[in-house]
Amino acid sequence: MSFFQKTILLVFSILCAVPISNAQSGWSFNKSGGSGDLVTVFFTSAERGFVAGDDGYFAYTTNGGKTWSKQFVYTEEDINEIYFRNNDNGYVVAGKKMFLTDDGGRSWREIKIYNPNDFKNATPEFLSIRFADKKRGLIVGSLLNKDDEVVDSLVMRTDDGGETWSRIAVPSKRELFHLDFVNSSRGWIVGDKGMVLVTYDGGGNWQVQKTGTDKALYNVDFRDENDGFAVGGKGIILRTENGGGNWETVNTNFPATFLRVDFADDKNGWIVGYGGTILRSADKGKTWIRQEIATRENLYGLFMTKKYGWAVGANGLIIQYER
Fold first, then answer.
1. For residues 55 and 77, what is the distance between their CA atoms, to the nearest angstrom?
2. Minimal CA–CA distance to 74: which of 107, 47, 50, 43?
3. pLDDT tens digits, residue range 52-110?
4. Exposed, middle or buried by CB within 10 Å (0-12, 13-18, 19+), for 204?
5. Per the structure, how many domains does the chain have?
């Protein structure tokens, strides 16, 4: 084959391969959200959304991601999660701090949720926040010693919409990474070494569920009281159809660490993780296929709806999904 023929073949291959990959995945690159890692993303509508991450970086869009504006949220700590329980009331957890908005994210104020002497010589690290209803919410994470080693789990609860908080006991000392509620009573927490906790009373009391794995579980997503998913280290995907009474491992050929799982409806779900990994399922999480996108940056945050979705990751990466 001549050099000219090889060149034509190469160009043809590129022109064919790129559109097919993009069309199949539905993902496209958005404008960067800064130079640091982005770890969380949340949209309250198709137009209004938020991203955040390292060193207190926080940005918002009001035009569906066409442009992003930086916003100061009075912290230089890493922001671990953004969560809105409705269009107006939202929360940000950043290291040992929490911030609240009641005007849709236009302004934020810090809430003092503990006293410095509450944990003796340990420092709290808040990682995730969710609300069971208008008033009752929980924050989960861990307590760290001076060497940044986990010495205990941490669960804080509010009964007044987030203004005041108190610690509640749970049957685990492992680091807790994420929680999810499906209604005012039923919720789950996932954590290190395969830990899953369940509540039946809105977060007042928690019980351990057996998972059959000792891998870290970083994220949990339930569609209703029965169907749920958890993902974590070394490619672990867990699935349940009875509220966690039984968790089954979903076997795949993808060994990357998974950090987020989110189902847009009962059938269609996505997972993101290390190395630019994006997996999609169209059969209630029974099987998963990899979606190709031209990045190998770690993906830390995910937010999906039926019509659109977003993922964020290392070095300010923002990618957008459209059907």
1. 5
2. 107
3. 999 999 999 999 999 999 999 999 999 999 999 999 999 999 999 999 999 999 999 99
4. middle
5. 1
Q: Supply the DSSP symbol for 18.
A: H
**H or E segment and range at residue 4:** helix 3-25
Please name every residue paired with 173 in a beta bridge, in sequence order, or none if there are none: none
Phi-psi region of 271 (alpha: psi -120 to 50; beta: other; left: phi over 0): beta
Which residues contact residue 14 at a Cβ distance below 8 angstroms, ignoring those fewer than 6 apart?
A: none
Here the tokens at position 20 are 């097919």
Residue 7, domain member (yes or no): no
H or E, element range at 81: strand 79-84
Domain of 164, CATH number, reads: 2.130.10.10
Which residue range forms the structural domain that includes residue 102?
Answer: 27-322
Tokens representing residue 242 in the block: 């009875």
Give the pair of three-digit tokens for residue 46.
Answer: 């198709």
CB-based contact 258:271 (threshold 8 Å)? yes
| pLDDT under 70: residue ranges of the chain | 1-24
Q: Sheet harboring 90-94: ordered strands across? A: 79-84, 90-94, 97-101, 109-111
Tokens of 18: 């790129």
Q: Residue 82 corresponds to which amino acid? A: I
Residue 17 vs residues 20, 25, 272, 302: alpha-carbon distances, Å:
5, 12, 22, 26
